[in-house]
Here is the input.
Amino acid sequence: MASIDFKNRVVVITGAGAGLGKTYALEFAKRGAKVVVNDLGGSRDGSGESHNAADTVVDEIKALGAEAVANYDNVATVEGGENIIKTAIDAFGQVDILINNAGILRDRSFPKISESEWDSVVGVHLKGAYCVTRPAFIKMKEQGFGRIVFTTSGAGLYGNFGQANYAAAKTGLIGLMNVLKIEGAKNNILSNTIAPVAASRLTEDVLPPEMFEKLKPEFIVPLVLFLSSEDCQDSGMIFNCAAGWYSRTAVVCASGTIIGDGSREISPEEIKENWEKITDISDAKPLDNLGESFGFLAPLLK
Ligand code: NAI
Here is the structure.
């Protein structure tokens, strides 16, 4: 099998000073990429700042004989996002791959979530993806090549107690990816999303110790690298990954049922009567775009 390498590729990884981002950065570097190591260097809840985290990873990459540059900007501001991409262009002239990875947690049950806990988590994960991806996307369009990886979470895709702010932000990224899949297609810009589970400071008090040991961040790396490579030709997909388990997950649409003829009124009683058919997802499949969903109601629009 031909090996996947990133020679002449420039990768920007947000939040690469620790955890998953750091493991990606080291493997990209080993496979020839020039790496922009972005990290604000704050604590788990996003407070504080330090250059240490990003600098340490850059030193480790240089010790491997590879090229890297540090950036300490906050992904959650437009200025920060622009500067992260500018760092890549100033140092290496291009940006081929963007891994949106930076993240924080401020877990609390929904009635207790304050406005600042909501705003900071949505700010880093969702607005942060906008702030960094937009300038990268503009450059990728000029280049006619780009690979973008977003990081969602099972907490958002499936639900998890106490993570309403995080879940909402993480699932918002699916909407962003769905649109970039369409807008980037003709310029060979592919966007995919991972939903990892891995040992890091974000999960150390969430996962039982015996699971924590097994869920090594290194298991997430190969999927992220494949999605970032020229060999990957898929776009708009979401993947679960943990401890060596890799599985596609998707927003799907079922054919459902048609009630009435498109002109007569439909009663709530008819919805009740048809509930089994409406909720049946046995023939459900992912759709390529919004327009495709209109196919299901075509008989009603004649
Ligand atoms: P981590 O806390 O070890 O790493 C996150 C890094 O992002 C930190 O180094 C932090 O300084 C940096 N960061 C935070 N806010 C930033 C900002 N505003 N600007 C720039 N850098 C910032 O966490 P981990 O586990 O490696 O998480 C990586 C990503 O994976 C996050 O988006 C997280 O939500 C996501 N994720 C992780 C899971 C897991 O099981 N570890 C599960 C699902 C999603």
